[in-house]
Amino acid sequence: MKYLIVGGVAGGATTAARLRRIDEQAEIIMFERGEYISYANCGLPYYIGGTISERENLFVQTPESFGKRFNMEVRTQHEVVAIDRAAKAVKVKKVATGEEYTETYDKLVLSPGAEPVKPPLPGINSEGIYTLRNVPDTDVIKAYIEEHDVQHATVVGAGFIGLEMAENLHDLGVRVTIVEMAEQVMTPLDYSMATLVHQHLKTQNVEFYLNTAVSSFSKKDGERLNVHLNTTRTIETDLVILSIGVRPESKLAKEAGLEIGDTHGIVVNEYLQTSDPDIYALGDAIEYENPIIGKKMITYLAGPANKQGRIVANNLVRGNEHVYKGAINTAIAKVFKLTVASTGVSGKLLGEHNIPHIDSITHSSSHAGYYPGAEPMSIKISFDPKDGRLLGAQIVGYKGVDKRIDLFAEAVRNRYTVYDLTEIEHAYAPPYSSAKDPVNIAGFVAENILNGTTRTIWWRDLVAGKADDYFVVDVRTKDEAELGGIEGSLNIPLDDIRERLTEIPRDKKVVLYCGVGLRAHVGCRILMQHGYEQVYNLSGGLKTYEHAIQ
Amino acid sequence: MKYLIVGGVAGGATTAARLRRIDEQAEIIMFERGEYISYANCGLPYYIGGTISERENLFVQTPESFGKRFNMEVRTQHEVVAIDRAAKAVKVKKVATGEEYTETYDKLVLSPGAEPVKPPLPGINSEGIYTLRNVPDTDVIKAYIEEHDVQHATVVGAGFIGLEMAENLHDLGVRVTIVEMAEQVMTPLDYSMATLVHQHLKTQNVEFYLNTAVSSFSKKDGERLNVHLNTTRTIETDLVILSIGVRPESKLAKEAGLEIGDTHGIVVNEYLQTSDPDIYALGDAIEYENPIIGKKMITYLAGPANKQGRIVANNLVRGNEHVYKGAINTAIAKVFKLTVASTGVSGKLLGEHNIPHIDSITHSSSHAGYYPGAEPMSIKISFDPKDGRLLGAQIVGYKGVDKRIDLFAEAVRNRYTVYDLTEIEHAYAPPYSSAKDPVNIAGFVAENILNGTTRTIWWRDLVAGKADDYFVVDVRTKDEAELGGIEGSLNIPLDDIRERLTEIPRDKKVVLYCGVGLRAHVGCRILMQHGYEQVYNLSGGLKTYEHAIQ
Ligand SMILES: Cc1cc2nc3c(=O)[nH]c(=O)nc-3n(C[C@H](O)[C@H](O)[C@H](O)COP(=O)(O)OP(=O)(O)OC[C@H]3O[C@@H](n4cnc5c(N)ncnc54)[C@H](O)[C@@H]3O)c2cc1C
Ligand SMILES: Cc1cc2nc3c(=O)[nH]c(=O)nc-3n(C[C@H](O)[C@H](O)[C@H](O)COP(=O)(O)OP(=O)(O)OC[C@H]3O[C@@H](n4cnc5c(N)ncnc54)[C@H](O)[C@@H]3O)c2cc1C
Ligand SMILES: CC(C)(COP(=O)(O)OP(=O)(O)OC[C@H]1O[C@@H](n2cnc3c(N)ncnc32)[C@H](O)[C@@H]1OP(=O)(O)O)[C@@H](O)C(=O)NCCC(=O)NCCS
Ligand SMILES: CC(C)(COP(=O)(O)OP(=O)(O)OC[C@H]1O[C@@H](n2cnc3c(N)ncnc32)[C@H](O)[C@@H]1OP(=O)(O)O)[C@@H](O)C(=O)NCCC(=O)NCCS
Question: Cα A262 to chain center, whole Å?
């Protein structure tokens, strides 16, 4: 059996290694257009920023070591430029010489990845404007910073990679401005969660413009780069990182007549087989049905690419035995001191797909408050109003965000309901958690909403004049209330509420709020059982409200 | 409706709070024998050690604040001494005066907890010998340390609490000796994992005696305490912490004629209702069927007690609607710089119950090795040889142990197989994980064992003369091998193995090992596919072997 693999990094190298482990006799050739294989794409921003100090740490394997260990040919700087499916052969171009040759295959694997989007804006090819995908890109950016007096950088696009780059440039002492077309950073988050990130960026002295697009770039010899915004503002800068998104490298597949989807990703079946049964594809270049919304999507993540690699190898050698179940886009990023993570589908995206859902926000601590070093985290979950099935979760916080997002991811993947969240049995000792873990609390609160034990409203319901529809009660202590709260609200501390019921009208919608929602929950239950018929808890309390409206 | 609750801490206070939230009209009285309610039992060792500096931080609620917020009577220093089930009344003794009175109930809840075992050893009541359960115990120990010149302490029993106390006393500058009857610390761990803890204790200069029991204590006035061991050794010490276990406080229930199990725990049904339908019980005092081995066990953990509290309240108010599914004993402890965690059932306990299982050890990093600060973790899982169902997991490491144990706990609870572990979709960015998470790796390795892709042997198979049955090959590099390995093994670096097959006999059982098992896996696959019929990977590699045999 002769296997050819296109792409030598996350998907390609993993497929190749597993292939060899389960088929010692096969002939395997791995083609990589670039000079390097098996490198840590995800580490590139940190190498630029100096957190990863040794360049060689970026390489898990070299072409030589990999070829030797797995007894295969690794042809770097060989680009596969065409596939002749009828002849079962590929045309390969040697990058250095331009020389071309063909190589036949029994089975072909495509893991060509994705390329950064570079819009055709005037001036986009000026010196000092870069995208970041691979090691050469990294080397160029790092050299540019070392060789020029980079005082200020502009990051265009505030996705995960853009923010990682902002942080790493900041770490180098460079002032950073972020320009983002959307009303928020990090589009997998809902607005109310993204505002926590906005707040943090401010504390880090990172300038950012939302709802703002770049219209052109210009640079005169010897002068600084100008980034012209659609707001008429111009930013003078020394370096631009373009991180406005990526798109699948599906051109080769398309030209070979393989089926390509609306997303421009390569279409594969549940065995990761393309429309040609002798060709498998994986990684950033394929589209796959999202298990929650049922729509084909592309997952630009290394974890899924690695897992798919193993599945492709299994299916190639053992016959199509291993079904790929799809990814739910579980992602995480360090954004300066924050950790930001999401899994499943955001409220926003559910809305766009007209999928009914209820959202709920809770704020918890990374571990028991009485043990030193606990840090706050905010959790938003979205669930199905019929059966409580969890559809997505987002967390912004510090320590311990990573572990809760992994639990939520399992919950989403396994079609847990919010009732199931209440039963998650976490490991508890004071340095690690609380007797009720934040995921349990998120479950309790959602369960209460779902079975009518409580009703919630959303910060949006209270803004822009709508507040008049509600009688708003602040159930925090007098001292807390004096430091400020929602305008026009009446302060009745929770512990006094039973004695002060007469101050709360029975013919109006009553909203209770406290810092995060816990005391208001207790208050809501008291009012509801004293005959109040329209009582609401403000989801996420004052904390969410204040971040969202600023 | 009139509810009486016995016990005002984890189970009792949680039940009471939820009861009030869902039944504003009920009469609720909570009895607590001690002076305090709602305190952080789990924080007590850390308050003694000074990590928690403020005593008031131990209290989540005071009797006054709790009573006011939840509009109930909190009677501290009132001990319930008898239950008259026919009359539906309890007899209560005021601790301060000895005065007794009765109080009737519609429904009674028992959450009396567990008491430390204090064996009737000679001298056990000498001054300076303490157990730790509650705030007064804590105050006594702390005062003793402040008022005496405690240079050395002896911790008897090396369970989670014993080791936490060892750490905290050590933090105070006290030299600590641990005495443990078993061959290892922390019995929920298997021996091979406990040895990692032993190793760590040595690096922390904590002395410990295994396989050793205390036979008596003695103390002459003005002299130090003597702890006499069954090995004829005597330890001179200034303070003894007895932490050899706890037992359920089921005396009250037993005397009332409620059904008590073989474990001495109170018997409850799936609604947490005792053999008397008007009496519910929860927490450390009940026994419940372990979902994995089907045997009744007691779970001495705060997370389950808290969750049960909410279930009991739901069932009391809403009728028996909420089924308790049992706990799988997911636990974690900080042991000096280590984090030690377990969930489900250990290999040892599975063995004792004659439950067939396969064990597998893997060693991973807390996050991508190329990003600074990655720390090692060792994982042991046990699974069913028939269908691969995960039965238990243990982890010893540093950062990131807590999040992996939570994932394994979900896997055990939800009857995942090891195949399912390979599909867990974790959040990956370099500071948090690797593209293949340690739980995925544990799954890959187990899957390979289960479906015959590889065979493993255990460190025990290689010790005590048995090594002669095997031809042992060290596949690490020459440099690594020169630093020492398994005696009598032949070094053939993995990358040379294909060329040196002739050196490996075909008529013997061949064992391959490397540092942790990864390279040996690749090597095993090469040999197996070159016609070798009996090839084994040493589970956990040299790392597990070396720790286990020392
Ligand atoms: C800066 C950066 C940070 C990231 N951070 C994270 C993160 O924190 N977490 C996360 O999960 N993911 C992260 N990712 C995404 C992750 O790296 C990708 O999802 C993953 O690498 C995809 O694997 P792949 O095999 O599909 O593509 P790649 O790993 O990109 O490999 C594709 C390879 O194919 C080669 N190739 C393409 N066409 C041809 C051809 N015709 N002939 C020969 N070779 C060809 C390319 O040169 C490339 O080397 C990050 C990506 C980048 C760029
Ligand atoms: C030092 C220590 C550290 C711990 N660390 C952890 C940890 O890290 N993680 C973890 O999960 N668990 C830990 N635990 C265990 C956890 O605290 C218990 O599992 C949990 O508190 C059990 O709840 P409970 O309601 O059953 O009992 P408790 O919380 O102990 O409450 C029982 C209460 O009932 C009272 N009572 C008993 N009988 C009567 C009566 N007849 N009348 C009136 N009152 C009565 C007692 O005085 C006691 O206050 C620790 C325990 C201790 C002691
Ligand atoms: C590393 C790389 C070359 C592929 O290697 P790989 O051999 O599949 O992956 P690993 O080194 O993690 O090894 C995993 C294998 O070792 C086995 N293994 C791991 N630890 C083991 C242990 N302790 N004992 C036995 N086997 C073990 C696993 O079972 C698995 O083998 P299998 O697939 O046959 O079941 C490829 O993943 C790569 O190039 N990665 C870097 C690029 C990348 O992923 N970039 C994006 C992220 S930054
Ligand atoms: C704290 C204690 C008194 C019980 O209190 P509790 O009110 O049940 O628990 P919490 O304070 O965590 O609050 C949980 C409740 O608030 C709700 N809640 C929490 N955060 C919320 C938010 N942001 N919005 C709305 N509701 C919220 C939850 O839904 C839950 O209410 P429910 O049970 O009606 O669904 C009791 O657990 C206790 O005494 N604990 C200390 C003792 C102990 O556990 N020791 C062992 C561990 S060290």
Answer: 22
A69 lines ligand 3 (CB under 6 A): no
| Cβ–Cβ contact B453 with A under 8 A | yes
Catalytic center residues of B = 42
Q: Does residue A396 sit in helix, strand or coil? A: strand
Q: Which residues contact B221 (CB under 8 A, 6 or more apart)?
A: none
Instruction: Return residues 366-395 of B near A (CB < 8 Å).
Output: 368-372
Q: What's the distance, CA A459 to chain centroid?
A: 24
The rounded distance, in Å, linking the Cα atoms of A305 and B516 is 24
Ligand 3 touching residue A10 (CB < 6 A):
yes
Nearest-angstrom CA–CA distance, A114 and A96: 22
CA–CA separation, A418 vs A381, rounded Å? 9
Dihedral angle over CA of B7, B10, B15, B17, nearest 10: 110
Amino acid at A298: I
Per-residue pLDDT tens for A435-466?
999 999 999 999 999 999 999 999 999 986 67
Within its chain, how far is the Cα of A107 from the centroid? 33
Query: In B172-267, where does DSSP find H-type helix?
Result: 191-203, 251-255
**CA–CA distance, A439 with A427 (Å, rounded to integer):** 12
SS3 A346: coil
CB proximity under 8 Å: A 81-110 to B: none
Distances (CA, A) of A401 to A38, A300, A408, A436, B426: 28, 21, 11, 15, 12
Supply the residues of A annotated as catalytic.
42
Q: Which residues contact A521 (CB under 8 A, 6 or more apart)?
A: A445, A448, A454, A537, B21
pLDDT of res. B373: 97
Alpha carbon separation from A429 to A421, B45, B61, B305, B419 (Å, rounded): 19, 11, 19, 14, 30
Rounded Cα distance, A63 and A73, in Å: 9
Ligand 1 binding site (Cβ under 6 Å of any ligand atom): A 6-12, 31-34, 41-42, 44-45, 79-80, 111-113, 132-134, 161, 249, 252, 283-285, 300-303, 305; B 428-429
Three-state secondary-structure class, residue A545: helix
DSSP H or E segment with residue A379: strand A376-383
- Residue B38, classed as helix, strand or coil, is coil
Question: Quick one: pLDDT at residue A374?
Answer: 98
The neighbour count for residue A270, using CB atoms within 10 Å, is 15
CA-nearest of B137, B124, B129, B158 to B48 is B137
Q: Is A84 helix (H, G, I), strand (E, B) or coil?
A: strand
Torsion, Cα of B475, B476, B478, B484 (10° steps): -110
pLDDT in tens, B86-95: 999 999 999 9
Give the residue-averaged pLDDT of B242-261: 98
Closest C-alpha to A298, from A255, A353, A248, A352: A248
Can you tell me the distance from the alpha carbon of B262 to that of B287, in angstroms, rounded to the nearest whole number?
Answer: 9
Cβ–Cβ under 8 Å, residues B523 and B493: no
pLDDT one-digit tens code per residue, B109-129: 999 999 999 999 999 999 999
- Which residue in A has a C-alpha nearest to residue B367's C-alpha? A402
- CA A33 to CA B36: how far, in whole Å? 70
Over residues A418-438, the mean pLDDT reads 98
Please report the DSSP string for B146-163 in residue order.
HHTT--EEEEE--SHHHH
B365-401 burial code (b ≥16 CB/10 A, e <16): bbbbebbeebeebbbbbbbbeeebbbbbbbbbbbbbb
The ipTM (two decimal places) reads 0.98
From the CA atom positions of chain A, what is the Rg in Å?
A: 27
Q: Which two tokens stand for residue B149?
A: 């010149």
Q: Tokens 């859902």, residue?
A: A357
